[in-house]
Write a structure and sequence with these properties.
Blueprint: E1 3-7, H1 12-23, E2 27-32, E3 51-55, H2 61-64, E4 74-77, H3 86-89, H4 91-112, E5 117-120
Length: 132
């Protein structure tokens, strides 16, 4: 059994990953601030001994202390601002929620000296011809 952390695990994509991993018998921890995700997406796993949910924000260093990051061999990092259109009018929101939050997670991993596999997925490209 693998111990898996899913940031943003109460969101649409994260909660479906939770379902798949729980069915496989993995030990799953969701870390989510519930700003766009919902406890309803994972409610059916509450009370299962292989499932934990921690309400926290990757931008809050005190919340990060709730994570025992060295116990996870696999981290799916899905926490991000899902509202793509806001990036053109309020880019600081994307910067904070996508860049700074990711930096905080990676720094936490680095400081523990662990080497989990990290799957990162939060970028949307509307025009792939612009990518060199």
């Amino acid at each position: 059994m693998e111990s898996v952390l899913i940031t943003g695990g109460a969101g649409f994509i994260g909660s479906h990953l939770v379902d798949a991993l729980m069915v496989r018998g993995e030990e799953v921890c969701v870390f989510d601030n519930l700003s766009t995700g919902s406890i309803e997406n994972v409610r059916h796993w509450l009370g299962n001994p292989n499932f934990t949910i921690i309400r926290g924000d990757l931008l809050n260093l005190i919340d990060l202390e709730k994570l025992k990051i060295d116990r996870y061999s696999l981290i799916f990092h899905f926490a991000a601002n899902p509202e793509v259109k806001i990036g053109s009018t309020e880019p600081n929101i994307h910067f904070q929620q996508n860049i700074v939050a990711t930096h905080n997670l990676l720094e936490l991993v680095r400081k523990t000296g662990t080497q989990p596999t990290i799957v990162f997925a939060s970028m949307k490209c509307s025009n792939l011809s612009n990518i060199a």
